[in-house]
Amino acid sequence: MYIKEVASSLYPWDLADEGVETCVNNVMEHSLVNSVYLVGIMHKEKRPLTSLFYTHNPKRKFYLPEDSRIYYRMDETNFADTPLKPLYSTRDFLKEKDWLDELTAYGRKNNLKTGAEISHTFYDCEKAKTDFPDVLQKNIHGGIIERHFCCNNDHVKAYMKAIFYDTVKNHDIDFIQTCMMLFATGEPVKAPWFMENDPENKVGSLLGVLKGGCFCNHCKAKAIHMGYDWDKIVSDLKELERFVHASAYNNLDAVMDAHVLMGSDLLETGLLLEYPSLYQFLEFRMKSIAALFTEINASIKSANKNVDFRYNNYLKYPELAGLDFASVKDSLDSVRDSDYTEQYGAPDNFKRKKNTILKIRRGIGYDKDLIAAFAPRPNATPELVRESIKILSTLGVDGLSLGHYDGATFELLDAVKQGMQEAGIEIRK
Known about the structure:
This protein has 429 residues and is α/β, with parallel strands linked by helices. Helix content is 41%, strand content 14%. The protein has one domain (2-427): TIM Barrel (Alpha-Beta Barrel). Strand 11, helix 15 and strand 12 (399-402) form a beta-alpha-beta unit. The radius of gyration is 22 Å and the shape is globular.
């Protein structure tokens, strides 16, 4: 099997602590990487994510990043249409240095493909709540949804497009990737405590959307402009939402209905037939995401028509967040799927990984590149990494992607090369 790409993400603090050359040389030597990209805007989470301590960082045992800071230079004149302005690191060992240029310069010396990632959140969430609460998504009762920005807000869209445009315009990259959070899906609704809880209960996942968003005035205005009866949609969904919070201690009027619903084998289809407003809400969000991706793609291509726009899927059911791959395929050049089954011991024997890869392929078609991720992290094993790569070799993927170097052991990085050799995978430019 031939693939085009073996990619590795790198964080600015990795480059600062270990050195650009060391990081890049390690992934090239141990994992045959021919593509490196900087996570240039990173959400707030502990690194490494799945273990207490780093495995090969010589300067620190772990790191807590600032929320959604930019680690490379930006031309702030590109942000004139939005009150949201770029926020940079204030950490002495990271600030005032263009880490994207540092990485791409060394990558080019080694004939590597280069890229940048805009991660889950692209603006400091606490600052947004304080200074610009209007840009955050709202739940059905008008409350703020943490970490989710509304893509129907003009200021949010202008900020997004400026980030993509500026990054592509002013940096030597081949692709720009994002796993930005779309519409909030909410947590799946589970069966009552006295019933057997099916983790694959799709109705529960669908009902979880009612704990998400967005129901803000910007969404309302866009929905009405698109011809939806927004007031009826919200009214109907509030009636349905009673199932979401029904329990023995809350909303007693709905508790029996909720128990019967969650204990039945009703398909999602049945729920959508009963509540057409729920389908309309999902459709509206899908159209909103498709429109956003179209605008972002146009912004990217206006800066450099040769740069790929890649979405990094992190969702089990992306359609519940408004992402329908068939509706966005013309706006995307490639997709990366972030299934990290390996770090959990692959309890489902890679079932979810297979399902997700095929779902994305079905949506984007056979001509767009599909990059499959795997986790060479301490909770995985070399055997699992090799088995994962072997399975991926049967699914028609166009590339592989490590998730992520900062938490990987060298034994697991070596397993990438070994797995490719065992699966008969070759890299072809």
